[in-house]
Amino acid sequence: MRPFPVILSAPSGAGKTTIARKLLERRADLGYSVSCTTRNPRPGELHERDYHFMSHAEFVADRDAGAFAEWAEVHGNLYGTLRREVERVLSTGRHCLMDIDVQGARQFAEAFPETVLIFILPPSGEVLLQRLNGRGSEDPERLLTRLKNARAEISEVARYHYVVVNDDLELAIERVGAVIDAESVRHDRVHSLDAQVGALIAQLEQEIHGIQRGDSHAGVHTG
Ligand code: ADP
Ligand code: 5GP
Question: Whose CA is nearest to atom 16 of ligand 2?
């Protein structure tokens, strides 16, 4: 099976980072593309694990050198996906999980049309605000920016292939996992499908000829 990119998008606070982390802990067939950002690390976030945290000048230099498969300004900071990160994950045979905003997802999917796009919705506006407050990562001004942006982001949902409501966390993780499982058996992702089908047809033809010749052993496998 050919590994593919999987993008999770959602308004800030809907739970995409939590879902992505749990999936990565549980599934060996997934790898994570660590994004670059100019925003400051939150308490508990680690450089290289959560983001490549960088200055504005470093980001612009990488962008101008063509290092990003996509990039966007989100909530006043720059974010980007490094081409080499995506290639690193896919080259190990794992699907490449990414947490990207709606503008970046659109750019990325144009460059990599095999990308699976999943939108995570919060169960309500009230719950989204509670989660953002509960995370304790934003001051009131930044919180308001994130809520305002949420309105615009949610209206892009129809561009996505799948929508998962993150009400019960376990159920949401299970649903995203089910999408990845189903996508991995799509006929265009199965490795050497033509060769497999060709071999099956050749075997069936042998069986059919055997029966037509009146071969009494046709279809009987004695080992
Ligand atoms: P995002 O990455 O979309 O900005 P996070 O994954 O950081 O969102 O989640 C925001 C907050 O909501 C975190 O404190 C997280 O623990 C919490 N959270 C995520 N999913 C759920 C859920 N299903 N039920 C309750 N709390 C949740
Ligand atoms: P946060 O600051 O909460 O980690 O992320 C803010 C927003 O930036 C989220 O919508 C997240 O999906 C988005 N984001 C994170 N990494 C990338 C990236 O590499 N590219 C783009 N375009 N958006 C990203």
Answer: 100
